[in-house]
């Protein structure tokens, strides 16, 4: 029996979960956190910093690591994208000093995406497809440029969007399927393996589409709009609308991301009177599992916008960036493990390195900062849950003859229903 073949061995994985629950008391006595300082590692400075604070054109709207972690892409403002080898050397922190590629896009860059990419679980079951590494770039004029990373040459230009392309993501199944989200109120699905093929267009939202995310099994697209108080779920297999995740109160939606197993969908939103919310939904049942709210003590709660969020590829860590700080929430242990970058001029985007340990943030002034992430060893329970939940839905789990405690754990219903994430200053 191959223990990694979870699609055909549910019983094996369930037995592992049972054993893990029994071992919980033993594991709790072992320190699962490798103590390291989680501070600033490095910083990239733009070649043309803004003359005045708040001046447009210099913002770093997107930062991305390549799927294998060997490259870093930085939209450094003024229509330029930098491609650097990772890890950085001492010379890399000064623009123009390293072996880098500069891509002149001649338009404001809103979105970056490396492809093809493959989720961790898919990599266990499939042979990686031999495609050259590409970098897709979404521009202010609605054009998507696709560049070859190894050569720095433009491979293809995709047209069709009538407004800025705000987000891009490749399907995590190793294919060249690219999903784009735009201010023209549509999402488009491109197959880059088929030259000249027309994209599938997803219509429905009445507002700008800000962010999109694809589930790890490449079956579902989640998207959010700026003034729309609901989340859209689309089928990537049939290119049709599936359902809404609806809020009872008016919200401005900021970002979305799936967890490593696809069983959680994180949504960032904010409102002028209630501040920001960070919600974890079950995308299968449309059930809101937990809501984390901004620090209720802070005087700037009403204008503290949540700008981005990202699940870590290692463990159950959720990073989010607001106007006040970069924070990383360990959802499994229900605690903040990082609260740093306390700068109200700070970042608008963040991205984890695929191997963990580092997170990058992009700033409004064009800078990029790299922060050390605490090294957490995922528990045996959580690793078993990821392997199982990647393959089966919530409904299938609930149909299994399992004790209530294990069912709650496998469906993430054991996490707190509501909590307030206090800032470092007001931490209780």
UniProtKB/TrEMBL annotation:
<dbReference type="Pfam" id="PF07525">
    <property type="entry name" value="SOCS_box"/>
</dbReference>
<feature type="repeat" description="WD">
    <location>
        <begin position="351"/>
        <end position="373"/>
    </location>
</feature>
<comment type="pathway">
    <text>Protein modification; protein ubiquitination.</text>
</comment>
<dbReference type="Pfam" id="PF00400">
    <property type="entry name" value="WD40"/>
</dbReference>
<feature type="repeat" description="WD">
    <location>
        <begin position="158"/>
        <end position="192"/>
    </location>
</feature>
<dbReference type="GO" id="GO:0035556">
    <property type="term" value="P:intracellular signal transduction"/>
</dbReference>
<feature type="domain" description="SOCS box">
    <location>
        <begin position="377"/>
        <end position="416"/>
    </location>
</feature>
<dbReference type="InterPro" id="IPR036036">
    <property type="entry name" value="SOCS_box-like_dom_sf"/>
</dbReference>
<keyword id="KW-0833">Ubl conjugation pathway</keyword>
<dbReference type="InterPro" id="IPR051983">
    <property type="entry name" value="WSB_SOCS-box_domain"/>
</dbReference>
<dbReference type="InterPro" id="IPR019775">
    <property type="entry name" value="WD40_repeat_CS"/>
</dbReference>
<keyword id="KW-0853">WD repeat</keyword>
<dbReference type="InterPro" id="IPR001496">
    <property type="entry name" value="SOCS_box"/>
</dbReference>
<dbReference type="InterPro" id="IPR036322">
    <property type="entry name" value="WD40_repeat_dom_sf"/>
</dbReference>
<keyword id="KW-0677">Repeat</keyword>
<protein>
    <submittedName>
        <fullName>WD repeat and SOCS box-containing protein 2-like isoform X1</fullName>
    </submittedName>
</protein>
<dbReference type="GO" id="GO:0000209">
    <property type="term" value="P:protein polyubiquitination"/>
</dbReference>
<dbReference type="InterPro" id="IPR015943">
    <property type="entry name" value="WD40/YVTN_repeat-like_dom_sf"/>
</dbReference>
<dbReference type="InterPro" id="IPR001680">
    <property type="entry name" value="WD40_rpt"/>
</dbReference>
């Amino acid at each position: 029996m191959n223990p990694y073949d979870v699609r055909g061995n549910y019983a094996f994985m369930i037995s592992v979960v049972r054993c893990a629950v029994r071992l919980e008391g033993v594991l709790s006595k072992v320190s699962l956190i490798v103590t390291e300082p989680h501070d600033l590692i490095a910083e990239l400075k733009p070649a043309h910093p803004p003359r005045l604070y708040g001046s447009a054109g210099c913002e770093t709207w997107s930062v991305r690591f390549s799927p294998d972690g060997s490259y870093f892409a930085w939209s450094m403002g003024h229509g330029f994208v930098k491609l650097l080898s990772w890890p950085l050397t001492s010379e890399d922190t000064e623009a123009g000093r390293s072996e880098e590629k500069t891509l002149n896009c001649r338009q404001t860059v809103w979105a970056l995406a490396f492809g093809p990419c493959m989720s961790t679980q898919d990599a266990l079951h499939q042979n990686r497809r031999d495609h050259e590494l590409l970098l897709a770039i979404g521009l202010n004029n609605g054009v998507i440029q696709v560049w070859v990373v190894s050569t720095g040459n433009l491979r293809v230009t995709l047209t069709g969007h009538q407004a800025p392309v705000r987000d891009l993501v490749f399907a995590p199944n190793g294919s060249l399927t690219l999903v784009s989200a735009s201010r023209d109120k549509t999402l488009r699905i491109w197959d880059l393996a088929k030259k000249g093929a027309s994209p599938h267009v997803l219509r429905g939202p009445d507002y700008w589409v800000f962010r999109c995310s694809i589930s790890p099994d490449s079956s579902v697209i989640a998207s959010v709009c700026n003034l729309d108080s609901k989340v859209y779920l689309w089928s990537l297999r049939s290119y049709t609308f599936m359902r809404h995740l609806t809020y009872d109160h008016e919200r401005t939606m900021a970002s979305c991301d799936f967890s490593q197993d696809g069983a959680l969908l994180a949504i960032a939103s904010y409102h002028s009177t209630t501040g920001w919310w960070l919600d974890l939904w079950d995308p299968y049942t449309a059930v809101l599992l937990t809501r984390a709210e901004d620090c209720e003590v802070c005087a700037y709660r009403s204008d503290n916008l949540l700008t981005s969020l990202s699940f870590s590829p290692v463990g159950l860590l959720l990073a989010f960036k607001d106007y006040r700080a970069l924070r990383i929430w360990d959802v499994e242990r229900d605690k903040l493990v990082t609260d740093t970058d306390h700068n109200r001029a700070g970042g608008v985007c963040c991205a984890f390195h695929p191997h963990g340990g580092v997170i990058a943030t992009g700033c409004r002034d064009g800078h990029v900062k790299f922060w050390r992430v605490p090294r957490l060893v995922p528990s045996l329970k959580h690793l078993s849950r990821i392997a199982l939940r990647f393959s089966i839905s919530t409904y299938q789990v609930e149909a299994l003859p399992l004790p209530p405690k294990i069912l709650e754990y496998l469906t993430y219903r054991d996490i707190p229903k509501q909590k307030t994430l206090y800032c470092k200053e007001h931490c209780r």
